[in-house]
């Protein structure tokens, strides 16, 4: 049975890398920087595919009650903030720097957990958290392609990711599975992003987008939506067969793979100082994953 877990992990890694590369290609190479439309399209397709899969019996989904959906709305708000700010940041920041900043979401989660529980922290975990934070603080000073707007959106992205992680852990109801939670996220995102498309100017700007009729653009958008849905299924499958600590290992390996391959796909300008920040951040993340595995019984 162990080999099945490895296959699930490898499938997750492949979809993870392809998903980020496709999103980066559409946002940066094709310059489609209209996140309400881009993420609205992705979440709409995700919702349709998820509901269709549940209807056909391909995935297990129960009927979502109104009270359960309402209780999950704070998580949906954080989810929308995550994908909206993440798109803004990814369109302006290279993938290695983006993941380095995203790692700081662990700092946000740690601070919130610390305030809520006030429990004693392992020394190794504390060291890793501090290294992740220092790497993110120093990275903007050394990044040769520093973009103020991109880094500000990355800050909001990492905050929403960290807070969403805490909300998932502390969500008390057992009535919603991971797929049902994501279904609420998708439907809420479609509604909110659709309402925001005109006030943000994305709708008007997209109508004048030069590549709107491009075959490459259409393929990229369709691929991004499909890969986002497949990444959800791969994540749920991986979580069902492994502990959260081992899921963290596969996420870490997938990010390292994406960072290693990204210079071969996208043009990047990296110096030694920014590369050092990236390396330190991900070494610290490896220590964090190890400390969380080591702290589990058995």
Helix/strand-derived category reads mainly alpha
> What portion of residues belong to β-strands?
under 5%
Give the helix level as a range of percent. over 70%
What is the domain tally? 1
| Helix and strand run | HHHHHHHHHHHHH
Shape: globular
Architecture overview:
- With 298 residues, the protein is mostly helical.
- It has one domain.
- 79% of the residues lie in helices and 0% in strands.
- The protein contains 13 helices and no strands.
- It has helices at residues 2-29, 35-56, 66-71, 73-90, 95-102, 105-117, 123-142, 148-170, 178-196, 202-207, 215-241, 244-265, 272-294.
- Helix 5 (95-102) crosses helix 13 and helix 7 (123-142) packs antiparallel against helix 13 (272-294).
- The chain is globular, with a radius of gyration of 19 Å.
């Amino acid at each position: 049975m162990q080999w099945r877990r490895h296959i699930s992990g490898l499938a997750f890694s492949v979809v993870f890398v392809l998903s980020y590369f496709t999103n980066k290609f559409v946002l940066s190479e094709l310059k489609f920087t209209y996140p309400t439309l881009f993420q609205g399209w992705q979440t709409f397709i995700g919702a349709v595919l998820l509901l269709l899969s549940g209807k056909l019996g391909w995935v297990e989904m129960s009927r979502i009650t109104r009270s359960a959906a309402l209780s999950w709305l704070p998580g949906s708000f954080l989810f929308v903030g995550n994908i909206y700010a993440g798109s803004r940041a990814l369109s302006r920041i290279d993938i290695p720097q983006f993941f380095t900043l995203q790692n700081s979401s662990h700092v946000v989660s740690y601070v919130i957990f610390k305030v809520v529980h006030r429990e004693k922290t392992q020394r190794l975990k504390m060291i890793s958290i501090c290294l992740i934070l220092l790497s993110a603080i120093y990275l903007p000073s050394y990044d040769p392609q520093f973009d103020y707007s991109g880094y500000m959106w990355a800050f909001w992205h990492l905050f929403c990711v960290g807070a969403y992680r805490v909300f998932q852990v502390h969500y008390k109801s057992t009535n919603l599975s991971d797929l049902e939670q994501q279904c609420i996220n998708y439907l809420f995102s479609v509604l909110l992003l659709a309402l925001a498309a005109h006030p943000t100017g994305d709708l008007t700007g997209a109508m004048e987008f030069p590549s709107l009729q491009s075959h490459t653009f259409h393929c990229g958008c369709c691929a991004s939506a499909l890969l986002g849905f497949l990444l959800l299924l791969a994540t749920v499958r991986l979580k069902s067969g492994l502990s959260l600590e081992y899921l963290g290992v596969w996420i870490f390996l997938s990010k390292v793979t994406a960072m290693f391959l990204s210079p071969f796909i996208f043009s990047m300008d990296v110096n030694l100082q920014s590369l050092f920040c990236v390396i330190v951040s991900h070494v610290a993340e490896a220590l964090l994953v190890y400390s969380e595995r080591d702290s589990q019984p058995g």
